[in-house]
Structure formats: structure tokens, C-alpha cells
Please model this.
Amino acid sequence: MHTRSLTAGLLVAGMLASCQTRRVFADDVGPVRVGVVWYDVGLPSACRVDVDVVEKELRAVFDAMGVVVDWETPDGAPIDDRGRTLMIAVPDDALGRPLLLGATIRGSRRSWVFACAVARELARPTRRAPSRASLSRAVGRVAAHELVHVLLPGLPHAGSGLMAARWYPHVLSGATLFADPATRLAIRRVALD
Ligand SMILES: [Zn+2]
Model:
């Protein structure tokens, strides 16, 4: 879930400038909508997820930020994103980075969630494989983190919550996960662009 955020200072400066010059506030513009296309590739049975649970968890995180997710699950990989974000569940990071639970190519609308890495992280405290329901919920949270990277490619990681750079098992499995105030505000401002 790490992405490079080297321009954080510039982004903050830009946000402050837009606060001063625009007289429209994010809360005035109604719900923000984002399109997500979800599919998985090659998940072994131990890392397979319940897509309905993934969707429900991702929606819950974004609902709390005032963002409505338009969710699609095609039979195969779509050719064209048509303005939507493609989210692909795969077993592990093809680049072999062991600490990553998900990844987004900065500036693109394409994210990956590493379902087997999420399962291993969930199993770390108890040494027991997670249930499909808890794995699916955790995968939905990782997907939500990556979707924020897609929508706000310059936003730096937060100190805690949804956009923290590093997650521990309790973040994957604990009570409802929320984004920090700066992330929530930035997401709402997407509607003004
Ligand atoms: Zn991240």
C-alpha cells in the first residue's frame, strides 16, 4: 500500500491556495461518485474472497467520506477503464515486496490488492488462517486505501486510520476504519475538479 508521495509539500500548498480562491465548499456539491471495476486473477482457495463482502466494506469506508462507489464486477478483465478505477485482486506482489498489501501506480487508475499477503498479515497474531469473511473485509479495507491513492495521487500517507502507511493486524480486523480529517476533506474536494 505504499506509494511514493514526494510532492506532499506542494500538494498542501496547492490545497491552501484553492481554499482561498474558491467560494464553493465541498459540502455544497452533493455526493461524489467514483466508479470501481473489481476482478481477481489466480487467487488460490486459501486467499479467495467473497466479493460482496469486499464491496460492502469498501462502500462503508467511502460512505463515511460522502463518496458513493459505483461498483462493477465483470466476468473478465475489461479492456478499457472508461474513467473507472480497475481494482485487481492477485495472490501476491509480482515484484516480491513482502510488506505490501496493495499497490497503485501513481497517476493511473489501476490498483492491486495482494490477497494472500493480507491473509498472512491477518494470521500473524493467532497463527490461524482467517475466515473468508474476515479476509474479505480486510481486502475491502486495503482496496479502499488504494482507491484513495488513485483519486488523490499526491496525498501523503496519514499518521493513522485508513491512509496510514503501515497497517497492523488490528487495523485489518478491528472496528470500523475511518480516514483522517485531511484525507476526508481532500476526497470531498475531488468533486470540485
Ligand atoms: Zn498507501
